[in-house]
């Protein structure tokens, strides 16, 4: 059984914040941001929650595929910025679209979240499940300290997703996967700390609710562990880098993508990027890029793709798939 991606869609909130807009709010510049990250603008929610962005994607997926909501067996939302700790964002979407037969749960593996979710979907489809929806959605703007220039310029809000179904053709879908976690390095990228606070405590606990990041450590991690992860997945497939048509990596920073392409000795033009338009949208970045690539008719049926995410945890996740 293979996992067939039958439909892709994305949605971003309408408000655009350019680098020049940010330079009015903090001591930064378009030149600094572009040269360090390749980011030119990001979309920021002015009220839509993560479940609202997810719902937009879910409705587009259903409208464009013709699938009915009650034909779905599962909904998975990958997010590190859910509306609530409970209910899960996926459950909110499930209720709103009326997917009465679907189970629903969230996955948090930060910027690797969509890949982790896609792999779980693949395993469900190997079992008794036939059809599912996998969404990556984030409102990172609520986790950003907008006075902290070293992180504020990097992130954006958005959502993307896919419909998947089990296919009898074993040549279609995920040929190999590689998921890893590096929890010993978790302190290099944190956001949304929620310390215990209750009536039995005399003092209010300290804690940073916003992004805190050792940028250089994360940069080093990404440029080393993504090539390692991709190479493990390619070896399992088994394929060589030359047999891959398109590389769609997490869009954290254009320089990271360029460095990974060099590390893997593969041509830059096959590494697709849209970080200039959206910034880093964590779990949403790969499905947004995938949906754009399909809409632009760059990605054709039968082509081989590497998807790879990396980020908080620290985590990394890669899949090699035939689209
Ligand atoms: N504008 C202007 N100057 C800035 C800004 C800014 N927005 N931010 C930092 N600077 C300054 C610093 O203060 C520093 O000044 P100093 O030399 O006087 O001390 C200088 O610029 C250089 O700062 P560095 O941090 O060394 O810059 P670097 O070249 O490493 O780039 C960056 C920083 C872009 C964050 C880079 O390290 C990076 O991309 N790291 C990876 C980050 C990442 O991908 N994170 C997301 C992971 S995904 C997830 O799970 C959410």
UniProtKB/TrEMBL annotation:
The keyword Ribonucleoprotein does not apply. Its EC number is 2.3.1.180. Pathway: Lipid metabolism; fatty acid biosynthesis. It is an enzyme of class 2 (transferase). GO terms for molecular function: 3-oxoacyl-[acyl-carrier-protein] synthase activity; beta-ketoacyl-acyl-carrier-protein synthase III activity. Residues 105-181 form the Beta-ketoacyl-[acyl-carrier-protein] synthase III N-terminal domain. Keywords: Acyltransferase, Cytoplasm, Fatty acid biosynthesis, Fatty acid metabolism, Lipid biosynthesis, Lipid metabolism, Multifunctional enzyme, Transferase. It is found in: Cytoplasm. Transmembrane segments: none annotated. It holds the Pfam family ACP_syn_III_C. Homodimer. Belongs to the thiolase-like superfamily. FabH family. NCBIfam families: fabH, PRK09352.1. This is Beta-ketoacyl-[acyl-carrier-protein] synthase III.
């Amino acid at each position: 059984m293979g996992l067939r991606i039958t439909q892709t869609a994305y949605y971003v909130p309408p408000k655009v914040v350019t680098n020049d807009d940010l330079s009015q709010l903090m001591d930064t510049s378009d030149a600094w941001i572009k040269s360090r990250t390749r980011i030119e603008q990001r979309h920021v929610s002015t009220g839509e929650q993560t479940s609202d962005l997810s719902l937009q994607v879910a409705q587009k997926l259903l409208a464009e595929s013709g699938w009915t909501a009650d034909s779905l067996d599962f909904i998975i939302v990958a997010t590190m910025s859910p509306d609530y700790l409970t209910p899960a964002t996926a459950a909110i979407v499930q209720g709103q679209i009326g997917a009465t037969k679907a189970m629903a749960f969230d996955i948090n593996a930060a910027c690797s979240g969509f890949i982790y979710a896609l792999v779980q979907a693949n395993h469900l489809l190997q079992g008794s499940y036939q059809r599912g929806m996998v969404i990556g959605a984030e409102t990172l703007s609520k986790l950003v300290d907008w006075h902290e220039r070293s992180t504020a310029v990097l992130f954006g809000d958005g959502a993307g997703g896919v419909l998947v179904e089990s296919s009898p053709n074993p040549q279609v879908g995920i040929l190999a996967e590689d998921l890893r976690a590096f929890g010993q390095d978790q302190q290099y990228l944190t956001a949304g700390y929620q310390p215990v606070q209750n009536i039995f405590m005399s003092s209010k606990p300290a804690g940073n609710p916003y992004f805190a990041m050792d940028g250089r450590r994360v940069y080093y991690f990404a440029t080393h562990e993504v090539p390692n992860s991709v190479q493990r997945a390619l070896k399992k497939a088994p394929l060589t880098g030359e047999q891959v048509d398109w590389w769609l990596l997490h869009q954290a920073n254009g320089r990271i993508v360029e460095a990974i392409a060099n590390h893997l000795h593969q041509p830059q033009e096959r590494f697709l990027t849209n970080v200039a338009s959206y910034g880093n949208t964590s779990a949403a970045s790969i499905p947004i890029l995938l949906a754009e690539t399909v809409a632009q008719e760059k990605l054709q049926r039968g082509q081989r793709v590497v998807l790879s995410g990396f980020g908080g945890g620290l985590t990394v996740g890669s899949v090699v798939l035939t689209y």
